[in-house]
Fold this protein.
Amino acid sequence: MREGSLEPPVRQPLDWQNPDFYDMAKIEAEMHRVFDICHGCRRCFNLCDSFPRLFDLVDESPTGEMDGVKSEDYKQVVDACTLCDLCFMTKCPYVPPHEWALDFPHLMLRYRAAELQAGKNSKTYAQLTETDRNGKLARLAAPVVNWANNNGALRSGLEAVAGIDRNAKLPKFNGRTLVLRASEQPLEINQAAPGYGRKVVLYATCFSNYNNPEIGMAARAVLARNGVESEVVYPRCCGMPQLEQGNIARVADHARSVSDALLPYIDRGYDVIALVPSCALMLKFEWPLILPEDANIKRLADATYDVSEYIVDLAGREGLAPGLQGLPGGIALHIACHARAQNMGQKAAEMLRLLPDHDLAVIERCSGHGGAWGVLKGNFETAIKVGKPVARQAKTASKAFLSSECPLAADHIVQGVERLNGESDPKPAEPLHPIQLFAKAYGLL
């Protein structure tokens, strides 16, 4: 038996249509096996809060081993997992193809799926993560919603009713979606650019469509400058918020709907770009594990790029259009967990290193946010604690620009920096997505 594996991790399809997948006795037996291996290894002690919770349960048990931990306490470990995938992708030496075949995040997902099937999921949390419905409603009164989300008294009430921590920054809503803006603002394609002739369809993602259309508009501007024709499509959310809750059947439904909308573009020679790493991860990796026999899902996965990945590919194959300028003061760049989980390297850093005289400080560690998980009462302070090393690195770097591929992580890092700041320290700059910085370097913002 090997002590560990040096081979790249290989993920197995989710057997979610098998009744045994939801058998809690079998799930707890597998959790005992996996947790016992984790207890003996402990390489992941400094990732999310799941591992400190697990190790505390073991260390404080009567035997100091897994046999002293009650199975009903396993839920504490599950509840702290944000499905960032860093343990699987970057830390664990026992993931497949190793014979022990650990997949900690997907085991946590399986537990949540069983809870959901048993009706034990949080109904309030489920409503908070209905991103399409919430986005469509909030955009109708975006200024009012944004004001309410920054009103102390109303936030106290929201905390009491919905369990959203009053101190957690919530994303702004925008009255004019990315799809609407793109349809109203056609762009002139630079026919002299080396990349002229390429075509992409931007999968808008719920965040770029309803919360921050500027990310998508910046991507369109950069692509047009480089001769790339772009269309913007948003059939529905990728289902990541539902995956976090174990609602795998719902994710499969989203996958089929989105792939049906995007495949006609692929048939016409378009590449697909996802604007947020979590969504790119879903299209490229999670959906094929949920629907491994679906050829359309496989075709979509093969055609999908993260936005930074696409620009780097364009630069390497055809070259970029001239006109890039440096950004004085430098950039502190956070590499998002779900970008790392795509196993493609630091594409955002590679892209920003294409800028003349670049001054880049790269931060490769989890921000602690974990999507909707990180804004909940009881989780927010844990998220701040987990992300404190990232906030400290961002503060120490002292660059003019702060950026993360994950917009939620970026806002969370700013909150962490604000907590570290003294009274005389300047307020952190408003964070920007890497593609926004690239557009700024072209003079497009």
User: Anything to note?
Assistant: The chain is about 50% helix and 5% strand. Residues 331-441 form one domain.
